[in-house]
Amino acid sequence: MVEETTVREPKILIFACRWCGLIGADGAGKKRMSLPANFRIIPVECAAFVETDAIIRALASGSDGVIVMGCHVGGCRFNDANHAAIKRLELFQVLLEATAIGKERLLISFGTAHEGHQFSDVIQNYTTVLRELPPIDPWISTLSVRR
Amino acid sequence: MREERSPMLEEVKRLAKTALQEQRVEGVLGLKKDVGNVIQPHIFERSDDLDALVLEPKWLFAKLAMKILRVSDTGYRLAVVCRGCDERAIVELVKRNQIAENSIMTIGIACGDAQAAACLCERPYPENIAAGEKKQGVDPFNDERVRQFLVGDTSERVARWLRVLRRCIKCYGCRNSCPICICEPCKLEDDTWVPKGVIPAEMMCFHLIRAFHLSDTCVACGACQDACPVGIPLLNLQLSMRRTLTEKFCYEAGIDRERKSPILRNFFDEEEKGRDIPDWVSSLE
After folding, report:
1. B239 vs A98: CB contact, 8 Å cut-off?
2. Contact yes or no for B66/B98 (Cβ under 8 A)
């Protein structure tokens, strides 16, 4: 189709907990699964390490969406730290919704990506979600985008 | 108006006078009407001076009280004439170990209907009311000024938010006036998060970082938007997060002196006071 050339692929930044999300990403690589090339991974020790400020920074620097991947609830290595993380991120989604940026910009994925094929599904589904959203560009002031 | 106010003022003066005379406190922080009708905050340390005490306009003393107590000698006790929002801010500051609990005493006054409507305040009264009548609060989500930002069509709301946020001149008034914004050093001054020399402030970085840092602490006093020189309705950023905390965790900042913020706790420890595990969690295990 003609319009495909003009469509910009959404960029995704992933904060992956190294006990779950990162293992999933690793598995997807080992199995040579076909993945879209529009994401970058930042490994973190635990999903609770991810500050919302970093998510805001990522969105303001030009990512279209951010995924936070952690272990499933009850499976955290750090004394249920991911409970606090879920609450915090859910509350942050409320803020995103209030400012009409849209809570879809942040995907919270806890325990849904520790196999290669699950990881690949998450990315592919999220990419289609992001394509439907209106562009985030008006929110970004051109002076400060760091590429 | 004045006729209504005066018994409340007399009551506050009486309480402050007794507290000073019985030496329960060393100073009373309140508003003083000075020569030339200038109204400004003042620490009344002698009970004779208290005739100059006034209650209007709305003035938040929480941060001021914190700073006074920081520089004063140990053992200095302060009484604060405070409204509902001010009392909640003091409770939050005590919870965060910024004010020693035994060094502060509150003389709570309830706001009138007019003030509550002006602030769109849900709780225009302190927990310990010393003077005045408890008035019904206003639900901010019924007000058109709030609804146009928080409810409705997305593209219209985006345009509306961008229009007001572009006016920002990055004066840091919202941060400085906020009674609970106390971190040292502040992330908003760090080049990593908020690039220096960019005006208007980066819309997402500056405003969302500030708003989210106060998400579970905001007492909805409205000091930020009163301080804003370009009239950005900053309180609208907080309202839906406050509403979510109330609905999901039965938590409201500044009400409970013991309970910590739910976003710092796990799901298991919260059980007795209401909890909410997101729907999607149950499908995982």
Report:
1. yes
2. yes
Length of chain A: 147
Q: Which of B162, B245, B266 sits opposite A83 (nearest CB)?
A: B266
* Rounded distance between C-alpha atoms, residue B229 and residue B210, angstroms: 17
Q: What is the pLDDT of residues B187-228, one digit of tens each?
A: 888 888 888 877 777 778 888 999 999 988 899 888 998 999
| Token couple for A96 | 């995103």
- Nearest Cα neighbor of B19 from B104, B88, B92, B97 is B104
Tokens at residue B268, please?
């298991």
Lowest-pLDDT range of B18-27, B146-155, B182-191, B193-202 = B193-202
Angstrom distance (rounded) from CA B59 to CA B43: 14
For the entire predicted model, the pTM comes to 0.86
Listed residue (B232, B177, B171) closest to B201, CA to CA = B171
Do the Cβ atoms of B285 and A92 come within 8 Å?
no
What residues does each domain of chain B span? 2-131, 140-273
B contacts of A74 (beta carbons < 8 Å): 285
Average pLDDT over residues B133-144: 85
Residue A16: pLDDT band (50, 70, 90) is very high
Measure the N-to-C terminal CA separation of chain A; round to a whole number of Å. 29
CB contact under 8 A, B212 and A52: yes
Q: Does A92 touch chain B (CB under 8 A)?
A: yes
Q: How far is CA A27 from CA A22, A39, B159, in A?
A: 8, 16, 43
B206: nearest CA partner in chain A = A56
Looking at residue A139, its amino acid is W
The residue type found at B27 is: G
B205 to A111: CB separation less than 8 angstroms, yes or no: no
Instruction: Tell me whether strands B53-54 and B27-33 are parallel, antiparallel or unpaired.
Output: antiparallel
Taking the alpha carbons at both ends of chain B, their separation in whole angstroms is: 62
Partner-chain contact B203 A139, CB within 8 Å = yes
B137 touches B116 (CB < 8 A): yes
Contact B138, B116 (CB under 8 A): yes
Interface predicted TM-score of the whole assembly (ipTM), two decimals: 0.85
